[in-house]
Specification:
Elements (H helix, E strand, L loop, with lengths): L2 H4 L2 E3 L5 E5 L2 E5 L20 E5 L2 E4 L5 H11 L24 H10 L7 H9 L64 E3 L23 E5 L16 E4 L7 E2 L3 E3 L2
Parallel strand pairs: 6-9
Antiparallel strand pairs: 1-2, 2-5, 3-4, 5-10, 6-7, 7-8
Length: 257
């Protein structure tokens, strides 16, 4: 039996398939050996440190437009910024144009929550240790995730020799899952976390959590507009809580009581 087959799966209140991430330690952050060509970009990912997390459930897929529409119908929530944009509004594309408050409201409606940054990274690693991406160290070639490839009209930090098949967001689950059976933990859209980035040198060992009261929160995972190094499991992005962007979505987690 594979690790994915052995994982416990449940359906959330919104019907989303979820996987149980086991309790235990993992290595969070990056090492000096993984600096690639962007040393200044990786400073906030250090020092690498051991973190212990209690078990939790996490959505297998990013929240889709179809699921978010049910939330709007049930609560009267306003549509996201890109709701009428045909490049982003297919039912099985990840919902985008939602700020942190929108994502948190959806999570509360489903009786779930947004992941901490530590929970997100452990889930993204898929039990791999010291690997750059959810699948290992091999750089994406267009078959593993959706990032800034030759379809993006730009001349900075993009990859003209790669074709991932999509100019904008891909339908969720378009690429292979990681070791926990989770899809799109690299690329497609960044994902909101519940907390802001914490200084790793001061991070606690068990269930660390950054500030939840400031003007910004962590976003993780990389996106269709970003270069390869944004897709690394240790990449730490940040965004103001009121921003509604076409490259930020989310998925939810649930605590195990």
């Amino acid at each position: 039996m594979t690790q994915v087959e052995a994982a416990e799966r449940i359906n959330g209140k919104d019907g989303a398939l979820m996987v149980r991430i086991p309790a235990g330690e993992f290595l969070m952050g990056t090492t000096d050996d993984d600096d690639m060509d962007y040393r200044t970009e990786f400073r906030k990912e250090k020092p690498q440190h051991v973190v212990y997390l209690d078990a939790f459930y996490i959505d297998v897929y990013q929240v889709t437009n179809a699921k978010y529409e049910k939330f709007m119908e049930a609560t009267g929530q306003s549509p996201p910024r890109e709701w009428d944009n045909p490049d982003f509004n297919a039912p099985n594309q990840p919902v985008v144009g939602v700020n942190w408050h929108d994502a948190a409201a959806y999570a509360e409606w489903t009786e779930k929550r947004l992941p901490t940054e530590a929970e997100w990274e452990k889930a993204a690693r898929g039990s791999l240790v010291n690997k750059r991406y959810p699948w290992g160290d091999k750089s994406p070639n267009g078959t593993q995730c959706n990032f800034k490839d030759r379809d993006i009209d730009t001349n900075t930090l993009y990859h003209p020799n790669v074709n991932d098949g999509y100019q904008y967001t891909a339908p969720v689950g378009s690429y292979p899952p990681n070791g926990f059976g989770l899809y799109d933990m690299a690329g497609n859209v960044f994902e909101w976390c519940v907390d802001d980035r914490i200084n790793y040198a001061k991070s606690q060992y068990r269930d660390p959590k950054g500030s939840t009261t400031g003007k910004a929160r962590t976003v993780r995972g990389g996106d269709f507009l970003g270069p390869i190094f944004h897709c690394r499991v240790t990449r730490r992005g940040g965004c103001l809580v009121h921003i509604k962007s076409s490259n930020i979505g989310f998925r939810c987690v649930a605590s195990i009581k």
